[in-house]
């Protein structure tokens, strides 16, 4: 079975990540949780999501094991923050060139991960 990464491809995944961070930085109540102007955040997200969706282990190769729960601990992430992150991801997916079935499948990958990041 083809991975989601293979179905999406590197360029469309980069587009998704850029759409997501444009929403986060310009239209989100959780923008304060992200280092605006730090463009490495987009790269790290791209590398992580590539790996998360079954693509090459780019994040691990560059930064080591993801340990995302630990990396998010310094930030207060409650139900509202989780829901806002998911809202932005859903809008980013909707605004990226994916067919409808892929949009649903892709979005459904994120609620469990977002819940896992809650620490408040």
Entry summary:
This protein is an all-alpha fold and 120 residues long. The chain contains eight helices and no strands. It has helices at residues 4-8, 10-26, 40-52, 58-63, 68-72, 79-94, 100-107, 110-117.
Describe the structure.
This protein has 120 residues and is mainly α. The protein has helices spanning 4-8, 10-26, 40-52, 58-63, 68-72, 79-94, 100-107, 110-117. It contains eight helices and no strands. α2 (10-26) packs across α6 (79-94). The model has no long low-confidence stretch (mean pLDDT 94).
The CATH class label is Mainly Alpha
Secondary structure tally: strands = 0
What's the CATH superfamily, by name?
Globins
Order of helices and strands: HHHHHHHH
- Class by SSE composition: mainly alpha
**Helical residue percent band:** 55-70%
Q: State the separation between the terminal residues, measured CA to CA.
A: 37 Å
Q: Which ranges are low-confidence, i.e. pLDDT below 50, for 5 or more consecutive residues?
A: none
Largest beta-sheet characterization = none
CATH architecture: Orthogonal Bundle
Compile the SSE list and pairings.
Layout: H1 4-8, H2 10-26, H3 40-52, H4 58-63, H5 68-72, H6 79-94, H7 100-107, H8 110-117
């Amino acid at each position: 079975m083809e991975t989601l990464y293979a179905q999406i491809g590197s360029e469309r995944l980069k587009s998704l990540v850029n759409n997501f961070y444009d929403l986060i930085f310009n239209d989100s109540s959780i923008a304060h949780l992200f280092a605006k102007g730090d463009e490495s955040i987009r790269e790290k997200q791209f590398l992580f999501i590539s790996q998360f969706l079954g693509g090459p282990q780019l994040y691990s190769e560059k930064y080591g094991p993801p340990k995302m729960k630990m990396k998010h601990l310094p930030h207060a992430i409650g139900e509202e923050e989780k829901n806002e992150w998911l809202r932005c991801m859903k809008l980013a997916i909707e605004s990226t060139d994916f067919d409808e079935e892929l949009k649903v499948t892709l979005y459904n990958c994120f609620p469990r991960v977002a819940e896992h990041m809650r620490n408040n």
